[in-house]
Each structure stands twice: as C-alpha cells, then as structure tokens.
Amino acid sequence: MSVTTQRFTLDDYLTHDDSTDARYELVNGERVAMAQPKGRHGAIAEFLNDTFRDEIKRLSREWTAKQMAIAIQSPRGGRWDTARIPDLMVLSLEQWRILRDQEAIIRLNDPPPFLVVEVVSDSTVTTDYRTKRVEYNVLNIPEYWAVDPIKNCITLMQPVEDLYETRQFTGSTPIPSLIFPELTLTAAEVFAAE
Questions:
Q1: Quick one: CA torsion of 127, 69, 173, 135, rounded to 10 degrees?
Q2: Is 9 in a helix, a strand, or coil?
Q3: So what's the architecture of 37-191 in CATH?
Q4: What is the mean pLDDT of residues 58-77?
C-alpha cells in the first residue's frame, strides 16, 4: 500500500484553507507544519524585531521589520514550489505596502529583503543552517542571521563573491551588520531577551 502526499503549487498553497490556525511552509510542493516555538524563540524574535525597528526609526530609513508576516518564494530546484516564512525580515516600506493588499509573499522576481533572521530550534537545525543558507544566498539576500539559542551563538551570513561567508558570534562581541552598521548589538543581549 502506498501513501500519496498532496502536492501544492505556490498559488494553491497561498489560497488553501485547512480551517485551522496552523502555519505551514511549502517545501517541494508539500505543506510542512511549523511547530509551536518555545517561549525563548518568540522572545528573541520579538526583541530583534523591536531592535531593528528602533534602528530603522533612528536612521530615518524607509524600511520596516516584520515578524513571521511574510513568506519568501524559494528558488529551490525541482518540479515543485517552495516558500519559507522567516522568523523576521527587514524590507523596504514600499515593498511592504505592495504586500499589504495581496498575499504576503516575496516572489522570485521581486527584490529580496535586506535581512532575514531565523531563530534555530531543535527541529530546524539542519534546515536553518544548510537548506535556508543556500536558498537565501541564491535569492541574493544581503544578510542572513541564524540565531541559535541552543548553542547561544549567532551565525552571520553575508555574500562574498556570490557565496555566503559565515562568522559566528557569542558573548559580548558586537555583530557587524552591513544593513545596520551603527548597531552595537551582541549575542549576549539577544539571548537575554525576555
């Protein structure tokens, strides 16, 4: 006896309603349920969202930070579509205003967000460090942070000659963001988020 899995196109995924409040990413045409995160996961995402919004305001940029509000279509190869929902992203206000009145997804031909953050959990270690690293790099996202409360480490990924170069930060060493160069945020501050 074989088990068949229903496959979704990107458009099917965006319009599908399973009559629950469950959240799903689309991975190679399959809806993959997103687990309920631990409280620390949410506290870190909220702290970073607030920090980035404060810095955007201080710099008077026409940007915004959004927490789990926008999907990104992945260029992942294969026959079926993939769409990720990052924990946090920074994008232009202009792009956000366009997304407010339609399905909130950044498609392959749209400008990429400036920065994406994934908070690593036990169930997403491989996906956040390997799969999404490749996908976000191909999308030309200028900065990707894998914030890992399991290891109390932040892995900063920025493109160097078309590939993400990674640097890891712990403790009180400031994270050298290209998107927020004046921000003196440390891993210790991030992991102390309430």
A1: 30
A2: coil
A3: Alpha-Beta Complex (3.90)
A4: 91
Cβ-in-10-Å burial (0-12, 13-18, 19+) of 78 comes to exposed
Question: Token pair for residue 146?
Answer: 């894998």
Spatial distance between the Cα atoms of 193 and 18, rounded to a whole number of angstroms:
34
- Domain residue spans of the chain: 37-191
- Give the chain's mean pLDDT: 89
> What is the pLDDT confidence band of residue 2, given thresholds at 50, 70 and 90?
very low
* pLDDT at 77 (0 to 100): 64
If one counts every other C-beta atom within 10 angstroms of the C-beta of residue 24, the result is: 18
Q: How many C-beta atoms lie closer than 10 Å to residue 118's C-beta?
A: 25
CA distance 61 to 47: 19
**Whether 63 contacts 56, CB under 8 Å:** yes
Give pTM, 2 decimals. 0.87
Q: For residue 72, give both structure tokens.
A: 């990104």
Averaged over 64-80, what is the pLDDT? 85
Name residue 85's amino acid.
Answer: I
* Polymer length in residues for the chain: 194
Query: Residue 59 half-sphere exposure, CB side, CA atoms within 13 Å?
Result: 15
pLDDT at residue number 15: 74
